[in-house]
């Protein structure tokens, strides 16, 4: 029986995990990427309202807390494993009426109207005397 020698070579590529997290909205781009490939990361919304709170997207941060981008979508070269987290700010949601009444232009207009009405009333009283 003839014995052959078989040489087998292994080929592999380095791949790294890109993790993407956000408490609001839908993220895309998470997964395993070959080293050097470009990962396309995105978030589907910049604002989210829940109960009486409005949340606004601020930035993407890496696992060390470094700011990566303030854009909803970004492209990063995969050089190693990375975990990106969407950072959000929050503020209470005002009712439309309260928001209208706290607008500085509306306040100024109301004050001007009140001043005008008082001035008209004073002028009418002066005319009557």
Please characterize this protein's 3D structure.
This protein is of the alpha+beta class and 129 residues long. The chain has two domains: 15-93; 97-128. Helix content is 24%, strand content 40%. The protein contains two helices and nine strands; from the N terminus they run βββββββββαα. Strands 1, 3, 5, 6, 7 and 9 form a six-stranded mixed beta sheet that branches. Strands 2-4-8 form a three-stranded antiparallel beta sheet, with no helix packed on it.
Termini separation: 134 Å
Structural class: alpha+beta
What is the H/E string? EEEEEEEEEHH
- Tell me the number of structural domains: 2
Described by strand count, sense and barrel closure, the largest sheet is:
6 strands, mixed
As residue ranges, the low-confidence spans are: none
Provide a short characterization of the protein structure.
With 129 residues, the chain is an alpha+beta fold. It is built from two helices and nine strands.
